[in-house]
Amino acid sequence: MSVLDTIKKVKEQSKKRKFNQSMDIVINLKNVDLKKQENKFTADFQFPYAVSNKRIGVIGEVITKKAKDADELINKSKLQELIKDKKKAKEFFNTLDFLIAEAPLMPTIAKEFGIILGPRNMMPKPLPIQEDPSNMINALKKTITIKLKDAAIIQCKIGHEKMENNQIKENAETLLSFIRGKLPKGNNNIKDIRLKLTMGAPIKVK
Length: 206
Known about the structure:
Layout: H1 3-13, E1 22-29, E2 41-46, E3 56-59, E4 72-74, H2 76-84, H3 86-93, E5 98-102, H4 106-117, E6 125-127, H5 134-140, E7 143-148, E8 153-160, H6 165-182, E9 190-197, E10 203-205
Parallel strand pairs: 3-4, 3-5, 5-6
Antiparallel strand pairs: 1-8, 1-9, 2-7, 9-10
Helix pairs in contact: 1-6, 2-3
């Protein structure tokens, strides 16, 4: 079955749930030596269509006034509050998926929060003070972080069951193209591909 046919079958075979299930892709890999550091990666990938409600935080005194679509606005006063209470800062940042910060604040953020944000691959995306953060916010809401570390498998959300099938298909195919480019032997490193809803069984893409 093609990607589109598999998406249709996954939806048809799924039992109705009380929530909007996510559509996940499971990519099983082969012949990738993950003992070699160069074969591992962590990368941000932007889908054509947003797959979920990513929470975005914006840090700064100027760009926060323009960030109408952000989920959290962190002005100078709020930033100082988080610097003074690292436990509170950790809890706060754990509620977010991505951060944008005024470029001049990056050294301070790295110094104060690097130990919190670094391991989560959540260091802010820098933005010049004079720029409007709206475009970056919209792009990040379509972005996921993909990791290939110790297990030869990549699994992530590519949509949800209420999305149009063609949108999920485009998300899946764009992601696969990106991952092929990251693998040492491209398509030859992919063992199989499966699609599933949150509570459903995976179905192989042929």
